[in-house]
Design a protein that fits this description.
The protein has about 475 residues and is of the alpha+beta class. About 40% of the residues lie in helices and about 20% in strands. The N terminus is likely disordered.
């Protein structure tokens, strides 16, 4: 009761009601000039109505909305008023009272609704203006982008026209050079044939005279043998130099585009070097344990179409040719983030095998440092092939001119030349994986016994400093 009495005394001394709506203050604010207080919504509604001639409703001193200051002390005092008493005031506000029709209190609800409406309209107007401005700017950007793209396309078309003219000119010059060399060689061969024909006639005459009787011939006419020797013809060597230069130019252009725009310019897939040939029998302990197929056609019945996995690849490796060619790049590729991405120059295939027999071939001639093998999914992001218990491979290190087989960080030297193409035969029933060098015949390089029953993935490593290095999964038709 004491608190209630104190509150009544406080209400008697202080006016806790807005002079506009005659209800308890809601969010009270004070005018900076005259210090009179009002509900924020009441004074805002009043200002919106009179605007240019806005003056304090009590003293007429001019003000603007920026002059409103929160009256926190008054807000604290209003909060002391019991909720029940405020609710009574609100109930009275909802009742139609003619006596209050002319007062500010009768307009409280309408005023506040109008103020809220005005604020919402103002906010929507601002959003409309911002949206329209954004649309205008985007249209300007679109127009500029179209114009810029048109200019760039025109310039690129012009540059490529120049390059085409240059290449066509060089093509004509190269063909002319080859034609001239061919004609010169042909002339040389014809001259040699003519000289040899003369020599044949001489030898025929000498033989005929010798058959008639050697003693009748003058000493000076005796046959002493022809001093003529045919010069070595180097046309093939010259043509090889030209074709090699053209091939290098094609590779350099391809690498330049792939390094700058990886994945946007897939190169022409290399021709399939696979040829069906007989198997060269190898008398080795590993070969005896694992009887390999007798012909390459027997391999092809287990051939699988495997492709590189973009989530299990090092950022400085680029995938092209329908995800069948991987090459080293000077620039990191913009791959999607992946927790499985390698931190070293390695890549796995998307396909895995846990049962049956499987076979694939890899073109290795275009890299001077590589490893081809299989790996368990648990291989670490920094584990190089063959250096853990979860991977098996054969590896060529060009600087050492050395071919090795690796597993669990143990190296087995293979006294073989660099394979230009490697075949991998995975026989999971017998838990073995065999590697073959594929040329005009199949030659077993090494066989591992696999001590796991988990799925295995085709796996590859590329020497990072070999900027033009690449490995290509060769297409093997399944029989």
């Amino acid at each position: 009761m004491a608190a209630s009495v104190d509150l009544r005394q406080l209400q008697a001394k202080l006016d806790l009601k807005c002079p506009c709506c005659l209800l308890y203050f809601t969010d009270p604010v004070r005018l900076a000039g005259c210090s009179h207080s009002f509900c924020r919504s009441c004074i805002t509604t009043y200002y919106c109505k009179v605007k240019r001639s806005a003056g304090c409703p009590l003293c007429r001193e001019g003000f603007e909305l920026k002059d409103l200051r929160p009256n926190r002390e008054l807000a604290v005092l209003v909060n002391l008023v019991p909720r029940e008493e405020k609710e009574k005031e609100w109930e009275k506000e909802e009742e139609p009272e003619p006596a209050r029709a002319g007062a500010w209190g009768g307009q409280r609800s309408a005023g506040r609704r109008e103020a809220v409406k005005e604020e919402e309209i103002s906010e929507i107007s601002k959003q409309l203006e911002m949206t329209e401005e954004t649309i205008r700017l985007l249209r300007e950007d679109l127009s500029k982008t179209k114009e810029y793209t048109f200019q760039i396309k025109s310039q690129i078309t012009k540059d490529f026209c120049c390059m085409k003219e240059y290449i066509e000119r060089q093509e004509r010059n190269t063909l002319m050079f080859i034609e001239q060399e061919q004609q010169a060689t042909q002339q040389k061969i014809e001259e040699t044939i003519d000289q040899l024909c003369v020599e044949v006639n001489k030898l025929t005459d000498i033989k005929a005279q010798m058959e008639k009787g050697l003693g009748n011939l003058p000493e000076r006419d005796r046959y002493k043998g022809s001093p003529l020797t045919t010069d070595k013809i180097i046309l093939e060597e010259k043509i090889n130099v030209v074709t090699s230069a053209v091939d290098d130019l094609k590779k350099q252009l391809e690498m330049l585009l792939l390094e700058k725009y990886p994945g946007q310019f897939p190169p022409e897939q290399p021709p399939d070097l696979h040829q069906e040939t007989r198997v060269c029998s190898i008398s080795s302990e590993s070969a005896a344990k694992n009887p390999e197929p007798g012909t390459s056609s027997q391999f092809s019945q287990w051939a699988d179409d495997v492709t590189f996995d973009l989530t299990r690849i090092y950022q400085h490796l680029v995938i092209t040719a329908q995800n069948k060619k991987v090459m080293v790049s000077s620039y990191p590729s913009d791959y999607e983030p992946s927790p499985k991405r390698f931190c070293i120059s390695q890549v796995l295939c998307s396909q895995s095998f846990s049962t049956g027999c499987h076979y694939w071939e890899v073109i290795t001639k275009d890299s001077d440092g590589w490893a081809v093998g299989v790996a368990h999914e648990m291989i670490g992001k920094r584990d190089k092939l063959g250096r853990s218990e979860h991977s098996w491979c054969v590896e060529w290190v060009g600087s050492k001119k050395q071919l090795s087989a690796w597993h669990r960080d143990q190296e087995t030297l293979l006294n073989r030349e660099k394979p230009l193409k490697v075949g991998v035969f995975l026989e999971l029933q017998k838990k073995t994986v065999s590697f073959y060098s594929i040329t005009d015949k199949e030659m077993l390089l090494h066989t591992f016994e696999i001590n796991t029953s988990d799925p295995l993935y085709p796996a590859f490593w590329l020497y990072c400093l070999d900027k033009n290095g690449s490995l290509t999964i060769s297409h093997t038709k399944r029989r």
